[in-house]
Amino acid sequence: MISASTLADGPLLGLPLPELWFALLFAIFGTFLFLDGFDFGAGAIFATLEDETAREAVLSAIGPFWDGNEVWLVVFGGALFASFPAVYADLFSRHYLLMFAILGALILRGLAPEMYEQRHDEGWQRWWGRSFVAGSVLAPFLLGAFAGNWLVGADRSLTLVGFVVGVTVVLLTVVSGAAFLRLKAGEYLPDAVTAYGVRAVVGYLGAVVVTLALLAVRLPDGIDTLLSPAVVALVVASIGLAAGYAVAMRRGAHLAALAASGGLTYGLVAVVAVVMYPLIDPAVGATVEGSIVSTLPLNLMSIGAAILLPLVVTYFVVLYSAFRGPVEPGEAY
Question: Where are the transmembrane segments (predicted)?
Fold first, then answer.
């Protein structure tokens, strides 16, 4: 029987809870980056479309999903605060201007399509269409900059590593966005969307190479860290997934392409986690073991997560099942 005293004695079931929570944090962040990533990518591709039917198809494709997908960012922030509160405080206080910029970009991305549909005169839709594109590009760029700065322990929001990782994440969202749009609204979109996805995946691989080169110079023992078996395996797997994505897109296997883009997303996040561990805040040398909350709240949170996370996943399964299939003709945002 589980009691307060047993919960305070040691880790639940003898599990390595600090490491599990560290992995869970990055899994949650990867889930957000993938699910909201194809929404961001759709917004970036929106900028290339001139036909109003195609633009409406893009908005209809992401309409049922984008606000739900952002739940994972809230879950990430809550999980970080609950499990590593000192890291949450230090990390967000160092980059508070960047965090406000991220929130502003997310607000703009969410508000713009709503306003776009309110009026149909040319000037109004041009303004809000551009705002939608701006929010869709800025949000992943700034999130990538945040992740890059976190990884190298930067105490400034504007860094070369942050810029390069930001560009890498933007390209990755275009990769997943192109696959998602071809899957959901391919009938209404030009064939060029496929080319955008293929070009973006090539650009993504190039950006990853530049990122790894910067990390080799910037991180202590950078070359040894990047040549570890786990990192090498993830990089090789990413190359294979990128090739598979390009083939799938050209053959019209858009669901397979979307799955490949998901693998690329989780692979990128896994590289960050592997390179960072056993630290969780490199700027101050904070380790996973030293920064986790005490045993009792950690055990209680673990029980709560084991109950709540399956419910959240079930919600998303229901959501995506309810809106599966391509968008219908005349379907509005």
Answer: 20-49, 95-112, 132-152, 158-181, 193-215, 227-248, 255-280, 300-323
State how far the Cα of 53 lies from the Cα of 329, in Å rounded to an integer.
9
Residue 272 domain-assigned? yes
Q: What is the pTM of this model?
A: 0.93
SS3 84: coil
With respect to residue 325, please indicate whether it lies within any of the assigned structural domains.
Answer: no
C-alpha to C-alpha distance for 121 and 23, rounded to whole angstroms: 48
3-state DSSP call for residue 278? coil
Distance in angstroms (rounded) separating the CA atoms of residues 291 and 325: 45
Residues contacting residue 113 through CB under 8 Å, at least 6 positions apart: 59, 62, 63, 128, 132, 333
Q: What is the DSSP letter of 50?
A: -
- Containing H/E element for 279? strand 279-281
Six token digits for residue 66: 């984008």
In a domain, 222, yes or no: yes
| Whether the Cβ atoms of residue 27 and residue 265 lie closer than 8 Å to each other | no
Range of 48-57, 122-131, 255-264 with top mean pLDDT:
255-264
Measured CA to CA in angstroms, residue 102 lies from 96, 121, 152, 245 at distances of: 10, 30, 19, 29
Residue 114: pLDDT band with limits 50, 70, 90: confident
Q: Which domain, by its residues, includes 90?
A: 16-318
H-state helical runs in the chain: 4-9, 17-46, 52-62, 66-69, 71-83, 85-94, 96-116, 122-152, 160-185, 192-218, 222-226, 229-251, 254-276, 288-291, 295-322
3-state secondary structure at position 286: strand
Number of domains in the chain: 1
Q: Is residue 44 part of a domain?
A: yes
Q: Are 59 and 125 in contact (CB under 8 A)?
A: no
